[in-house]
Each structure stands twice: as structure tokens, then as C-alpha cells.
Amino acid sequence: MNEDNYHAPLDTTTFLRIRKWYLLALAAIALSIVVAQILIQHHLNSQLDDSKVINVAGRQRAYSQKLTKEVLLLKELSDPEQRNQIFAELRETLTVWKESHQALQHSDVAMGISKDENEEVQELFHKINPHYDAMVSAVENILADFRESGKSIPDQLYVDILLENERTFLKMMDAIVNKYDVLSKTHLQNLKFKEYLLLAISLLILILEIFFIFKPLSLQIRNTIKNLIVAHKKSDENAKEIKKLFQEKEKSLQELQELNFVIDNAALFASAKQDGNVVFISKKFNELLGRNAQELNRPLYEILTTDEGQQQYLAEVLKSNRKNIRTEEIKIKTTKGESLWLDMSIIPMHQSSAQQSILILCSDITERKQNELKVAQLTQANYEETMRQKQLQASQIVEGQEEERKRIAKDIHDGIGQMLTALKFNIESINLSNKEKTAEKIEYIKSLASDLIKGVRTATFNLTPPELSDHGIFPALHKMTHELSKLTGKNILFENKTEENIRFNSLAETNIYRVVQEAVNNAIKYAEANYILVTINFNDNILSVVIDDDGKGFDDSILGKVPKNTSEGGMGLFFMKERMNYINGRLFINSIPGKGTRVTINYKTDSRELIVAEE
């Protein structure tokens, strides 16, 4: 490859020539675009003038008819006020009609109308002027009679003149409007021709650019790329040769970098002889230990720490002959009385010599040790706090169970026990000889036995519903709401939005049932609700149960507090949360005093655990 070509891959003369023609072509295209825009803008302005002229000319026809109509109305109307109004309108109409007619012939800057120099248009106006003048004269005479003598009924002579000239005026005005329209279309055709001509010139310029600019430029670029590829191949060959020359140098640099890395990351280093005397100790290590230059004549184990026990241990470690590197975490004490932890690596040197020396590389790990101690302390504190919380929860659960036993015993004693006692007394007091009293007592005993059966059913139902184990959570909740509605007289409704009766594991069903039961009982006992709705739904492997009531509600800020004992209340809500946490469910309670309470239960289960129960 030629050296000149290598240094100058693009021909300067060719490049300058292509650039000149390219700029000329762009200038020609820009000029054609500018000229086209000037023509278009000029035509748009003329079109605006033409549209105004056509609009005014068309309006002249309407105003001529309006003049005739208003004059005829003067002959028909008898009301003086209406005649006065018509005269005012007639005067205004005549004024506008005259101004517009003069503007069409002689131009009017205020109306935006310029004079049309077309001879045919001027000839048409010359022909229409006598009729226009006759109509103007007739109307002005009518207005003069009204103004001077108060004559409100126009003379028939003026009316006839107006009627005779109006028809001819309209026909000739139509001819003028049509002529204006033809002139406007002619202007548009001229503009279209000029636009096509400019388009052809622009396309011709583009074609010339393709053949005389882009094609030569593409050939020049292709040759340049070819030369660059050849040069690139040669540079790759040279690079391979240079790479071989620098391989040994890179290897040496890598070794130096590794050594620098060790030194940079172990700024705390020292070396000593086999007897323990110091050969060298880094400045940073010396500053950390708080030693001065006069103290470096002592053995290394005495320099490292001021504690005698640590000195004896370090002396044994440093004097022992070893072939392998030894790493230890050692606690030392500085001259300032500070305790430091060092990660020490003891490296044997000159193993073939009898006077073996050692190199010590250290890292200050005091902060890490302190953090490990803090982590251990926090871990112990967290463990103790967790155990305390577990003990507190266990005691609260035991208290809750004891309260539940007391409640069951109280219900049995106060309800079933008293009814059994009353039943016993009534049976013992039956006197068969007194049939009337006996019949009354038997009826009372029947009623008492019915109440007793109802109480037993309520107690057993609250303890363990058979529907829960036999048929699942859906039928059990339906049965619970139905039974509680009958027993309490409250409107307790159940709405099941699922299509199938799905079974969950027994632990989840039991805990969900107890939480719903507790929520409904709270609504009955404490909220004094009259309407309770239990809604159950299952979507996307999430079982959702919502309990709404219209009770008196409560301040839900107490939900974040754990009750200290059962006498303060709130244990029911606490156990509801504990039951849902036990099965990894979620419980939401929203209440507004005076507006009711909503309890929401969400339980997510694995689809593999679901079973569709048989009907």
C-alpha cells in the first residue's frame, strides 16, 4: 500500500468538490422551498381578499332585497312605532349597501377590500350603476319625505322604481359574483401550475444530487473503508508482535502488583530474628502500639504488648520453628492501656538458614471484635425478650383457658343447674291426689325440660359443633349463625359466595370457626347488635370471612395494646389474634363508635391441601 494513501485515505480535492456541489444542491432545494412558501403565502392572502370580495358582493344582493322588503313593509304597517323602527332599519341598510358598493368599485382599507383592475368586472359595475343609482335615489327620497314632512307611507312612484330596478340589479350582481369566483379559481390554477413547476425543479435537483454527489461519495467511502480494513489487518499483526515482546514485562508487573497489594493491605507489619529481636517495624504499626524509636531495641513480643501473660505467649509463638504460615487472632495491650485485637499472620523467612527470621503481617480487627460482642449481647437480649414474650403469652393463654372454664361452669351452674334443681323440686312436690295442681306442674315441668334441653344444646354447641368435623367450615358457620339467631332472637345472617364446599385442614377450620364464633358473640353480648352478617368467600386460594354488625362499636385504638389481666377485658380479641397467628392467617378489625364493627379473616392455603367436600 502506498504511504501517501495510508496517510491521506481521502482525496482532498474530490472531497472539496463534492462538498461544494452538495452545498449548492441544498441551497437550490432551500431556495425552491422558500419560493414555494412565498407563492403560497401570497396566494393565501389573495384568497382571503377574494373571499372577502365574494362575501361582500353576495351580501349586496341580500341587502338589495332587504331594502325592497323594508319599503314594502312601510306600505303594509299601520303602527307608528313599527314604521319608525322600519325607517331606522331602512336608513342603516341603505348606508351599509352604499358603503359596500363603493368599496367593491374603488377599494376600502377598513373593510380589507382592494380595487379589482379587471376590465370585465369594471364593465359589469358600469352597467349595474344606473340601476343602483335609481334604487339609492328612490330610497333616499322616501327617507327625505319622512324626515322633512313626516310622511310615513312612501310614494308609489318610488316603490315602482325600486321594484323595477331590483330584479335587474340582482341578475347583474349574480354575474359580478360569478366573475369574482372565476377569477379566484384562475388564481388557484396559476398557483397549482407554479407548485408543480417548483416540485419538478426540486426532483430534478435530487436526481442530480444522486448521480453527481451521492454516487461518487459512496465510491470514495467504499475505497476508504477498503484501505482501512487493510491497515487494520496490518496493525493486528503488529499488535501480536508487540504483545509477545511485552508478555515478560506484564508478568513482572503482575508480580510487583501482588507484592504491592500485600504491603498496601497489611500496613501493620514487622520482621524479627529467631531470637525475637526486631529487624524492622512499620511506622503505622509503631504508632498503633504507642512506641518510640528508643524502645525498638527490645524483643518483638515485648513491643507488641505490655501484658506479661500475653508477652510469654507471644514469645513462645515467635520462637517456635515453623515451616508453614501461622494465623491467629491475638489480644494485646498498648502503652496507653488500650486493648486491641490483631489478626496476626506469622510467615517464616530464610528457611535454609540457621538464623531463621520471621515476617509478621497484622490487621487491626478491634472494631470487628467489638461489633461481634455487641451482636452477641443483642442476640442474648432478643432471646431473653422473646422468651419473656412467650412466657407472657403462655400465662395469658392459661388465664384465658381458666376464664373459659369458669364461664362454662357458671353457665352450667346458673342455667342448667338451676333448671335441674327446679325440675327436681317440682317433681318431688307432685301430689297425685290433686289432679289440677298435678296437671299444672306437669305442664311447667315440660316447659322447664324444654328450656333445659335448649340450654344443654347451647352449651354443647359452643363447645364442639359436630358439623365442623363432619362437613367442614362452611356448613358449621351456617349452622352456628342459624342456631344463634334462633336462641338470641337477633338477625344473624350467613352469606356463602363460594360455589363448592371446600375442606381445609382441621387445625385451620377449628381456629377460624372459633374466631368467627368469638366475633359473633362479642357483637351479641357487648356491641348489642341487632343485625349481624357473616360472609364467606374463597378466591385465589384465599379464604375470606367478614363479620359485619350494626352495634355500638368501640375505640379500635385499644387493639394494639395487650390486656394485663382478664378483668380489664379485651382477652377475646387477644385470643382471636393468637389463633390467626397460629395458622399463619391475618385478622383485621375496624370499628367506629356508634356505627358498628367489621372483622375480616384472611387465610391463604396451598391448593394441594384443598378438598372439595361431597354434598
UniProtKB/TrEMBL annotation:
PROSITE patterns in the cross-refs: HIS_KIN (PS50109), PAC (PS50113)
Residue stretches spanning the membrane: 20-40, 196-214
Signal peptide range in chain numbering: none
Domain Histidine kinase: start-end pairs: 407-607
Localization (cell): Membrane
EC assignment: 2.7.13.3
SUPFAM superfamilies per UniProt: ATPase domain of HSP90 chaperone/DNA topoisomerase II/histidine kinase, PYP-like sensor domain (PAS domain)
Enzyme class: transferase
Keyword set, alphabetical order: ATP-binding, Kinase, Membrane, Nucleotide-binding, Phosphoprotein, Transferase, Transmembrane, Transmembrane helix, Two-component regulatory system
Keyword Isomerase: no
All residue ranges annotated as the PAC domain in the record: 326-377
Membrane topology classification: Multi-pass membrane protein
Catalyses which reaction(s): ATP + protein L-histidine = ADP + protein N-phospho-L-histidine
GO molecular function, one term: phosphorelay sensor kinase activity
Pfam family membership, one: PAS_9
Main location: membrane
Keyword presence, Cell inner membrane: no
GO cellular component annotations of the record: membrane
Protein name: histidine kinase
Organism field: Arenibacter algicola
Gene: degS
